[in-house]
Design goal:
Blueprint: E1 6-13, E2 19-21, H1 25-34, E3 47-51, E4 55-61, H2 64-73, H3 75-81, H4 83-91, H5 99-113, H6 117-134, H7 142-153, H8 158-162, E5 166-171, E6 176-179, E7 185-197, E8 203-206, H9 214-220, E9 230-231, E10 234-237, E11 240-243, E12 251-257, E13 262-265, E14 272-278, E15 281-285, E16 292-294, E17 299-302, E18 308-312, E19 318-324
Antiparallel strand pairs: 1-7, 2-8, 3-6, 3-7, 4-5, 4-7, 6-9, 10-11, 11-12, 12-19, 13-18, 14-17, 14-19, 15-16, 15-18
């Protein structure tokens, strides 16, 4: 049996984070061997974001029909993609989601992402001007409103244009998004609890002043065209919902405990990290010498096979999260 280590953190996103992807294990090893100063380890980095507030993100490529609509209605994107690549995608059949469409999508996306800074700057300027004019006579789409917001945050950035290629995802509190290897994504706004495999490997290509490795990102992506699955978790007992992603590294429990209520969380076979997001109460476990007063921002480490008793003392609802190794790993 292998050994897994995970990370858990709270993200409060006020400004869009970069368009990025995380390599799979094989690519991570290759990148680390080739450029260890940039890619500092050889592990993959699947991750899951559980929304604490309304949370918005870009994730994965839009479907064939929606992509055709973009090429027909967004001349600035069509111009950077080029007539030849645009024509190939416009001729693609809705159900022809095989190697051919993926190849055309990769070619078109790569042309967009590798366009010169001058060309991108001009295209973004045209887009901004056109949408500002059109907003006076029609209601802009949510995606158009988004790209104008991104342009204000990252002027002249190719990520403003590439946003048209991605699914625009909104999570309500308690919903989650899993992001596997080689899938493009960008967190846009809101707060989430993020759990991931332990790695620092990030391949960025837009919406960032940091180092961009555009060629690597364009070559590594899966180019799957489907809307990502929204995870709503499974209730495992009163007040507790469990989010179990495809990755066997980690899982997350969300506990919403009203004032005056209590819950006993059953032992799990691996160690856990508990994080208090809202409210206050007490956490008791055999591993603790004393009962632990719990308030916003507190973090507790709980060893494997330990029963945890939680009491909500208010005011309001106590919201806390448990992150640990996926239970499937031990089965």
């Amino acid at each position: 049996m292998g050994i897994y280590s995970i990370r858990v953190r709270v993200l409060s996103v006020a400004k869009a984070l970069s368009i990025q992807a995380h390599p799979d294990r094989d690519l991570a090893r290759a990148l680390h061997a080739l450029r260890p100063s940039t890619y500092r380890d050889d592990n993959h980095k699947p991750e899951m974001a559980v929304a604490v507030t309304e949370f918005r993100a870009l994730c994965g490529f839009i479907g064939v029909q929606e992509l055709k609509d973009v090429l027909r209605t967004v001349p600035e994107v069509r111009e950077l993609v080029g007539k030849e690549e645009a024509a190939k995608l416009l001729a693609a059949k809705e159900l022809d989601g095989g190697i051919g469409v993926k190849s055309h999508l990769q070619s078109a996306f790569t042309k967009l992402m590798t366009a010169s800074e001058e060309t991108v700057s001009e295209a973004v300027s045209k887009l901004k001007s056109r949408l500002n004019i059109e907003s006076k006579v029609r209601t802009l789409t949510k995606k158009e409103q988004l790209v104008l917001s991104l342009e204000m945050q990252f002027p002249e950035d190719v990520g403003v244009l590439s946003a048209f290629f991605f699914n625009y995802v909104k999570l309500n509190p308690g919903e989650a998004l899993y992001i596997g290897a080689n899938e493009p994504h960008a967190y846009l706004s809101g707060e989430c609890v993020e759990c991931m495999a332990t790695s620092d490997n990030v391949v960025r290509a837009g919406l960032t002043p940091k180092y961009k490795d555009v060629q690597t990102l364009c070559s590594m992506l899966t180019y799957k065209q489907n809307f990502p699955e929204i995870l709503r978790g499974d209730p495992i007992q009163a007040h507790v919902t469990r989010y179990t992603p495809p990755s066997e590294e980690f899982e997350v429990d969300r506990c919403l405990l009203p004032q005056g209520e209590s819950v006993t969380m059953s032992p799990v076979p691996g160690p856990s990290i508990f994080l208090v997001m809202t409210g206050e109460g007490e956490i008791r476990a055999d591993s603790m010498l004393d009962e632990g007063k719990a308030k916003v921002g507190d973090v507790f480490f709980v060893p494997a096979h330990t029963e945890v008793r939680i009491f909500g003392s208010g005011p309001g609802c106590m919201q806390l999260y448990r992150a640990g190794v996926n239970s499937r790993f031990f089965s």
